[in-house]
Specification:
Largest sheet of chain A: 6 strands, mixed
Largest interface: A-B, 156 and 158 residues
Oligomer: homodimer
Number of strands of chain A: 10
Shape of chain A: elongated
Radius of gyration of chain A: 33 Å
Structural class of chain A: mainly alpha
Distance between the termini of chain A: 38 Å
Strand order of the largest sheet of chain A: 4-3-5-7-9-10
């Protein structure tokens, strides 16, 4: 780090001259590049006109020497400015791009409207070619889906600390909206475990769901509204990439942690515990369970019932995996369990012996809840924050699920359209008494396996759930809550992906750290901390990789003019008297510039590096810095290159720079470094060796 | 982001087969590479033995085809593991390296001790060849330094809210310690403005210096001790690079912000205000000044005196810059001001008319303060944190100043030795009643200009200050405080480097943002926030550059086999039917992989990219991904490459990968991606074009 001294009482003429030279040099250089601009433009025009007919240029090619090539580099065009880069970047995902708009403008109004509608509602595209055979498959998979969805929805609603009917409501409107707006064919929309747990853990911190159930419910609906707005706006602004900021590894860890937590929370239902903690971390939950055991406030019948049906569901699933014949049995086993358990309780009147039952579920259509959204509540800020986090997690889950099934079927999922669809799904959901819906992991798999072909299966499921809400809610009066716990527990293993965790460990240790960080954070602290840890570790990894302060020695590969890392390619040949060095990092900046400079000096000074001790190093006469890895350089980096050059000159070693990227070469020019190192900037390493008289050329 | 589906109720045989194939493939591959290992090792041995005599390999070179080269890449050695990389990295800056130790072990004990002592105390090296002529220069510069140092030290002590003698103490012991341990020849050690301000602003937040002056002083000494320990330990562990984390741009902004704040605080002394705010931000200070004006609690005589001597100092400095003759006048003008002002006040008894004076300064040697360090205080944690921040800032300033002057004289400053020297300076300082000392910006410049040759000038200065402490402190009784404010104000312009700020703006807009962030943060919030903003922006820049989601099209440069960005090199020739694409970022990871994949698909799908519309793009038959920029790839990146390949295959376009770096090619192999894309991995773009039958080769 060198501060150019503009010190009050200094009077060193050399330093002053140096600074003045730097400033003059810059203006000189800009003139120089102006005069070259003309030549440049001519050349550009020529190449553009000759285009693909390269025969024209062959004569020219022969005459191109390293001097001219190095001039291409040192006097090239200016790279796009920072603003231009940002604008380009934004254009990439901004509102409909200029191209799209201009192609639209050429068409008549009706076509433009049709285009827009088709883009907004993919249903308009696929419904024309919809066939009866497709409907048969969709009907079958929709009914299967509904049989799984009804018990799961009731279970997830209790997980979200809402009345059971809200889970069912969430399985009616959102699937219908998604069916007309979404681009995924398999995604089963509705309440999911992780989001339910997340929403209850975050909103219960604002109000107590036990004390103020109506306010709690309204805040949940408001959070859903915000989640929808966040999703829709992100999609419309084409900010789909934001979803990617929760890395794959982090998601694996987060999902597993959430699954374990949800599993522990199900102990409440499975054991029929009355007083249970509101907190989500494992320590609190285990303490709460222990306390219940201690005070005998749990009921063995609940446990018996729950674990019996859990075994039933798991066994049918195992059979279904082994033999395709049993697949439908596996899919509807939760519904069978509910029916059997309900009948059992009704017949034996087990509820009088301490078995907890659902009791009343309010039937009928989704009530309108627009007036219940709490926009004037004092909690609005917190609720908006909750909405943001839930929206992001819900989107990430839906995209992960949707993409993996789209990849199997070989079609592409448009991230931004998906975001808009999910956003409207939740916005409309929040005004029709639905809490946050997203793509369910387990149900999407069932939908896919049952052979769904289009989003019509979602519509079939929604209508079935609606009918159940209208007709059968009274039949669920005697359904034991332990059965809901079993159904939730049965869905959890799919969220824990040990194979993938092992795969991440094998491929990248830092990624695995992010995964474990998310897992431990969710498990022992809170859901938000888990997410925070995961995102922090992921970005820390990016920083560490970008500034890793290493250098590698390059050698020429036999049969080519290419220079590669001698450790990676043991067959690479090093040239006596010449040391070719490349930075391992992609940035030469404040954080690593000094370290790298010192390392190069050390390397030269000592003349050896472990195994690869070659005596010629001690008579190194030329150091070639291959800058091709560098994406960027900052003022500290430039200062350290300058200092390196000075140090090398004092040792009698020449220094040449090879192939700086556009931004880097521009900065080297701006700061006059190119002329300070005597213009020794080349396009290729071979050119640098050819041009430096000191280097022994025998070996080339 | 793709979650490999290990979903409970799934039964898709294709997907299962896919996963199984992936796992099998890996084991197969590892066997394959084992068999190749032998061949590899042979080849390696041959190259190593032939060494520089390349004639042997010429025959072989001719026969090397692209197939063999591609095999080098696909079946190469494993890259060093993460642990190995970390170990290598640590070895680079750990305690004395193995090499150093082994060379030491060969020598007898006395030589080893001598080596160690020479390394710890550079004075042992230069004192042998010390000459009388050098001493003459050092004496002169040391006396000049003392004349500037005495008034500045008193001023900075008041800035640190300590009694004036503590500033003088800090100019006695630290320069002596540094003189025997430091490696810089010019650095003038003692109290400095920024550190004084920083220490007072941070420790006053722990205890009120007005209410508990003794405790406050003890905490300042304790913080100094911690700062010293932090510096020494960092140096001994060779963590010198930590200093670099405060980037050059951030330091420029931070210094300027601190200078402005210190300037505003001097209004207290200059206006003779009695009640002044303890806070450091500009808003509080300006409010405090306005309140004083409003209540007439300021005194115009103070202002007159202060501004008169400020003008005197500034004019002499201006003269000194213009003409070397006046340099010494400029250097001693602060001392002259003090003497004149003191005489003036003594003669006119202006202190009775409201001119504030220093009054009593305790003379004598530095008292021992070891028993005053507060290790058992309840504030220990906070004080340690303060020590850490102050230690870092003091080090950064000293290194920046030291390095810039070392660069002018053309010698090298060993960062780690400097850290150890500064550390011991402050540790010993803290037990001899000194607060944090570091290299002063303005005094180092004076020392340099006065012609110092060795650290002896620091010793001369320390002895002079010591004599002043012993003999002349009583004479300073009538020195007006306004004169101290003038002296501090006069030193500030050197901290504000507008030229450098403009330079940063020109070179890098993001760096400038860090600079401005530090400036605004220090000015309007607090010193720590300023530092935090600067560090955050600096690292945010690293992340943004590393994940910038762009791609660039490459063309062949005439006369070479090299492919470069067609925007940077307009003369580059594109090959019809082949699109060569390189990622702009150095990482293909969760944050940009999907975006980049979508961009490539968009580019191909549309067949144009703004100006460079070439019809042949629409018949692109081969996409070559040049991975040479990629330092790292994570699971998301690999998944997106796989998806890209699938999408391209469905469009009938071939995809080839060129020149993945070591880590990247290893991961591609680990995840079996290399075989999934049909083994189309090549070392050079030319090889890829040669190997793909679909590509039109006419143009090569």
């Amino acid at each position: 780090m060198v501060l150019v001294p503009s010190i009050p009482v200094t009077q060193d003429p050399a330093a002053a001259a140096d600074v003045a030279a730097a400033r003059d040099g810059e203006t000189q250089l800009s003139k120089f590049s102006q005069t070259l601009q003309h030549h440049q433009q001519q050349q550009q025009a020529r190449v553009a006109s000759s285009g693909n007919k390269e025969a024209d240029t062959v004569d020219h090619e022969k005459t191109v020497g390293h001097a001219e090539r190095s001039q291409w580099l040192t006097t090239g065009l200016e790279p796009p400015s920072t603003w231009r880069e940002v604008a380009d970047y934004l254009r990439g995902f901004g509102l409909p791009s200029g191209r799209e708009l201009s192609s639209l403008n050429k068409k008549p109004v009706t076509q433009r409207v049709a285009c827009f509608l088709k883009a907004m509602f993919p249903v308009l595209q696929w419904c024309r070619s919809y066939k009866l055979t497709q409907f048969k498959n969709d009907l079958m998979s929709g009914l299967t889906l509904a049989s799984l969805c009804i018990p799961q929805s009731i279970g997830y609603a209790t997980l979200a600390k809402l009345d059971p009917q809200y889970g069912l409501y969430t399985s009616v409107v959102p699937p219908l909206i998604y069916a007309v707006m979404g681009t995924s064919k398999e995604l089963a929309i509705g309440p999911v475990a992780v989001v339910s747990m997340l929403i209850s853990s975050m909103v219960s911190r604002i109000v107590n769901p036990g004390a103020e159930p109506a306010l709690y419910r309204n805040l949940v609906l408001t959070a859903t509204f915000f989640a929808g707005v966040f999703q829709a706006v992100s999609g419309l602004l084409r900010l789909g990439f934001l979803v990617d900021f929760l890395s794959h590894a982090a998601l694996v860890g987060f999902m597993a942690g959430a699954a374990v937590i949800i599993g522990f929370q199900q102990l409440k239902g499975l054991l029929g515990i009355t007083h249970f903690t509101n907190r989500t971390d494992v320590v609190s939950v285990v303490k709460s369970v222990c306390r219940s055991f201690h005070h005998d406030s749990w009921n063995p019948y609940n446990f018996l019932l729950g674990s019996a049906f859990l075994s039933f569901i798991l066994i049918t699933r195992f059979l279904g995996r082994r033999n395709k014949k049993f697949f439908f049995l596996a899919a509807i086993s939760p519904l069978i369990s509910v029916i059997l358990a309900t009948v059992l309780v009704f017949v034996t009147r087990a509820d009088e012996h301490g078995v907890k039952i659902i009791k009343h579920i309010k039937g009928g259509l989704n009530p309108i809840s627009a007036q219940q959204l709490q926009f004037t509540s004092p909690y609005i800020g917190e609720v908006a924050r909750v909405g943001l986090i839930i929206g992001a997690v819900a989107l990430t889950e839906a995209m992960a699920v949707g993409r993996s099934f789209a990849a199997i079927k070989g079609y592409h999922l448009d991230g931004n359209k998906e975001m808009v669809a999910m956003g409207f799904t939740n916005i409309i959901g929040s005004i029709t008494s639905c809490y946050t819906a997203t793509g369910s992991f387990s149900r999407t798999a069932v939908n896919f396996s049952a052979g769904c072909e289009t989003p019509v299966s979602n519509i079939v499921m929604a209508i079935t759930v609606l009918m159940a809400l209208q007709l059968f809610t009274r039949l669920l009066y005697y359904t034991p809550t332990a059965i809901l716990a079993s159904i939730i527990l049965a869905a959890l293993p799919g969220l824990i992906d040990l194979h993938e965790a092992y795969h991440i460990w094998k491929v990248d240790k830092m990624d695995f750290l992010a995964c474990i960080g998310a897992f431990v954070g969710v498990l022992f602290v809170s859901v938000e901390i888990g997410l925070l840890v995961a995102v922090t570790v992921s970005f820390l990894k990016i920083i560490l990789i970008s500034i890793q302060p290493g250098i590698e020695t390059l050698g020429r590969l036999p049969g080519t003019d290419m220079f590669c890392n001698v450790d990676q390619y043991p067959m690479a040949i090093m040239i006596p008297g010449v040391m070719v060095v490349r930075f391992k990092s992609s940035l030469l900046c404040f954080a690593n510039a000094n370290f790298i400079r010192e390392r190069i000096m050390e390397w030269i000074g000592r003349g050896d590096e472990g195994e690869r001790k070659i005596d010629d190093f001690q008579t190194t006469q030329l150091i070639i810095l291959d800058l091709s890895n560098l994406m960027s350089i900052d003022t500290s980096g430039i200062a350290s290159l300058e200092e390196l050059h000075k140090n090398l000159v004092s040792l009698g070693v020449e220094m040449a720079i090879v192939n700086p990227k556009w931004q880097v070469s521009h900065k080297l020019r701006l700061t006059n470094l190119m002329s300070k190192i005597g213009g020794k900037v080349f396009l290729t390493i071979k050119d640098a060796i050819d041009a430096c008289p000191n280097a022994k050329l025998a070996s080339i």
